[in-house]
Specification:
alpha/beta; TIM Barrel; binds iron/sulfur cluster
């Protein structure tokens, strides 16, 4: 099923130190509301079955997002909103907004939580939002962003004590987090395949990767094009047929790194997105991989 991260606006009311938003990108861009509606209809026609409203903080444009959720429901698209929960200060505030979204057909709320988010948003807001979801029968989960350091233990314990559904997610060392000290990790020698859902910006640029991939500034490897010059169908077809994107999905970035000559001992010191950046944000490595795509295709067990 085709899925997409829909960046209606890059505006956020807080400024987390770990945010993948790059400092050099203006943080107040917003999509025209009617354009967004037209794109959603076009997406449904192109077989997009799931949209995640993410990027900045979607609740800053609550009425507009609620309307877009309703439209998605009408055209048969599954919807998720990713939020920092600033709006859930009280159980009542939270209840009002969550029940409206549920009525409009929202399928899932993803609540962001971390020691960086919680410098600006009280953790009880996350609790209120989760409780409202439970009360309204709205699927939710908490995305617990962590660098796996001991500092995060009390944050994890809070979620456990409250019996909330959460999934740890590693910090992506891009954007503001690019300046963080790299963890000294030794991972398993795992494939690191990546689903790669595209990301649409408020300026209608579409990228093949919704996370760190829109910030590969040396190569622009993941940029697919702009929806003013291309149809949704064309850009999705591009992401589905590009051989290197396909290899990221099927072979995984670890196997590609090994193909380029990286030592196994070095590969296991990188997290998935860092390894991806090391190869695909390097003009030399990318040129080589493009030239050797058939050899890479044959690089299998
Ligand atoms: S991580 Fe999320 S909540 Fe924090 S600044 Fe970035 S968009 Fe806003
Ligand atoms: S591994 Fe690459 S394609 Fe996958 S999320 Fe990270 S940057 Fe994007």
């Amino acid at each position: 099923m085709r899925k997409l991260a829909f960046g209606y606006s890059t505006r956020c009311n807080i400024k987390c130190e770990h945010c993948v938003a790059a400092e050099d990108i203006p943080d107040c861009r917003k999509m025209d509301h009617n354009t967004a509606k037209e794109i959603i209809v076009e997406m449904a026609q192109a077989g997009v079955g799931g949209i995640s409203f993410s990027a900045g903080e979607p609740f800053l444009y609550f009425n507009e997002i609620a309307e877009l959720v309703k439209l998605c429901k009408q055209v048969g698209i599954y919807t998720r909103i990713v939020t920092n929960c600033y709006w859930a200060k009280t159980a009542k505030d939270s209840e009002n907004l969550v029940s409206e979204l549920k009525e409009n057909g929202l399928c899932q709320l993803r609540l962001s939580y971390s020691r960086w988010h919680q410098k600006n948003v009280n953790r009880n807001n996350v609790l209120n939002a989760a409780h409202s979801c439970q009360k309204n029968g709205l699927d939710y989960f908490i995305s617990f962003i962590t660098d796996f350091s001991i500092e995060d233990d009390p944050y994890e314990q809070f979620l456990r004590d409250e019996g909330l559904k959460f999934f740890p997610e590693p910090v992506i060392y891009a954007g503001r987090a690019a300046s963080f000290k790299r963890r000294n990790i030794l991972t398993d020698y795992q494939e690191n395949c990546c689903e790669m859902n595209p990301y649409l910006t408020p300026d209608l640029d579409m990228y093949a990767c919704c996370d760190a991939g829109s910030h590969f500034s040396e190569t622009n490897f993941f940029r697919l094009g702009n929806l003013t010059d291309n149809s949704v169908e064309q850009l999705f077809t591009q992401t589905e047929t590009d051989p290197l994107y396909r290899f990221i999905r099927t072979k995984g970035v670890t196997n590609i790194a090994s193909f380029t000559g990286m030592k196994a001992r070095e590969i296991i010191t990188y997290s998935k997105c860092e390894l991806c950046r090391k190869m695909f944000n390097s003009p030399e490595t990318l040129t080589r991989l493009r030239a050797e795509v058939s050899q890479l295709a044959a690089w299998s067990r």
